[in-house]
Design goal:
- Keywords: ATP-binding, Nucleotide-binding, Transport.
- The protein is α/β, with parallel strands linked by helices and 387 residues long.
- The chain has 2 domains: 2-245, Rossmann fold, CATH 3.40.50.300; 253-362, Roll (CBS-domain).
- It contains 16 helices and 17 strands.
- The strands form 4 sheets. Strands 6-7-8-3-9-10 form a 6-stranded mixed beta sheet, with helices on both faces. It has a 4-stranded antiparallel beta sheet with strand order 2-1-4-5, covered by helices on one side. A 3-stranded mixed beta sheet has the order 11-12-13.
- It is globular.
Length: 387
């Protein structure tokens, strides 16, 4: 969708902002450009809509060299979101959102209907927020309006320059989550500039780490955190890149242990005898369909003689996550509930438990898989120590 071919930007004073860069952004891909101030990431992005012209090289959007496209027409086909939002304070939220459709000739009713649809997509009720002015919105709400306006004419490409940088950390995380949800629905081709490696890792399908005017590594978040290409990249992503990788590594069924299981309707005494024979002190409690009900300890099964069922003594299971959740979410659940493991479910069906040792093993296996270019299931070692 966007292809950069040996493009360079050199200013009259001799400063080279970007130097002979080539890379490609696929259709529907979200690529984050990350690096320190002055490294060339914003310059790269602004050359896509010709707010800055390259000194040499080509930039193609959907196969078309943008040097031959009228800049105004080009910009109306590309969404643009900046940190300061850039909205019009004298216009309502709905009219701000409908700006670009109106500029490209949509009828007013159609433009406003599209604006209402986009406000709803970014989590703002158009009936409630559409008639408001910007001074009636919070910073986070203004950022949402900025994103909605950028999408209003349904552009194939979206450029975002520090879009969530002007809000507090809590709102920033909420906006990131909302944007990921929206991107999953609309699948735009996105270039997003940020200085925050955690934001780059969380949002990007791939990440371009800039040094001074050049890309040091262009890779997936997992590969970037697991195998930094240079000492510069390793220093930029930080010594805590291992914990950061928890936020990009999903739980898979092969990561799980199979604990002792007791059935909801099983007699308590019989279950206690079986667990004792297995040397187990507790069991996960499932119903007849294999759905998770809770857990029970052997002492509780023994505590009231042999009467009653396992279900009479079972505890509610609070520490659980769905399969496909991130390791970071599972680790957070362990800490939140002071648990030695979390249950992993497919819908309501119990798949197994993730323990701290298995979490560590999953993390290490994902690093090896990225380094070898294979799936995690193809990486095998007997224990964490063997890795």
């Amino acid at each position: 969708m966007i292809r950069f071919e040996q493009f360079t930007k050199r200013y009259p004073d001799g400063t080279t902002a970007v130097d002979d860069l080539s890379f490609e952004v696929s259709e529907g891909e979200l690529v984050t450009l990350v690096g320190p101030s002055g490294c060339g990431r914003t310059t790269t992005m602004m050359m896509v809509n010709r707010l800055i012209e390259p000194t040499s090289g080509q930039i193609l959007v959907n196969g078309e060299d943008i040097a031959g496209v009228d800049p105004v027409r080009l910009r109306r086909r590309i969404g643009y979101v900046i940190q300061q939002v850039g909205l019009f304070p004298h216009r309502t939220v709905l009219d701000n959102t409908a700006t670009v459709p109106a500029l490209v000739g949509w009828k007013r009713a159609k433009a406003r209907a599209r604006a209402a649809e986009l406000l709803d997509l970014v989590g703002l009720d158009p009936k409630r927020y559409g008639p408001r002015y910007l001074d009636q919105l919070s910073g986070g709400q203004r950022q949402r309006v900025g994103v909605a306006r950028a999408l209003a004419a349904d552009p194939p490409v979206l450029l975002m320059d520090e879009p969530f940088g002007a809000v507090d950390p809590v709102v920033r995380e909420q906006l990131q989550e909302e944007f990921l949800r929206m991107q999953a629905a609309v699948r735009k081709t996105v270039l997003l500039v940020t200085h925050d490696i955690e934001e780059a890792v969380r949002l990007g399908d791939r990440i371009a780490v800039y040094g001074q005017g050049r890309i040091e590594q262009f890779d997936t978040p997992g590969a970037l955190l697991g195998t930094p290409a240079t000492p510069y990249v390793a220093g930029f992503v930080g010594a805590d890149r291992g914990p950061k990788r928890l936020s990009v590594t999903e739980i898979e069924a092969d990561d799980l242990e199979q604990p002792p299981v007791a059935r909801l309707d099983e007699p308590a005494g019989r279950a206690a005898e079986r667990l004792r024979a297995e040397g187990a002190r507790w069991a996960v409690v499932l119903d007849t369909r294999g759905d998770l009900h809770g857990w029970v300890g052997i002492d509780e099964l023994d505590g009231s003689g042999t009467g009653g069922s396992v279900g009479d003594r079972a505890h509610r299971m609070n520490a659980w996550v769905p399969v496909g959740a991130l390791l970071k979410q599972a680790f957070g659940m362990m800490l939140q509930h002071d648990a030695g493991w979390v249950a992993v479910l497919d819908g309501s069906r119990f798949l197994g438990v993730l323990t701290p040792a298995k979490l560590h093993e999953a993390l290490r296996r994902s690093v090896y898989a990225d380094a070898l270019g294979v799936s995690r299931g193809e990486v095998a070692f007997d224990s964490v120590a063997d890795a």
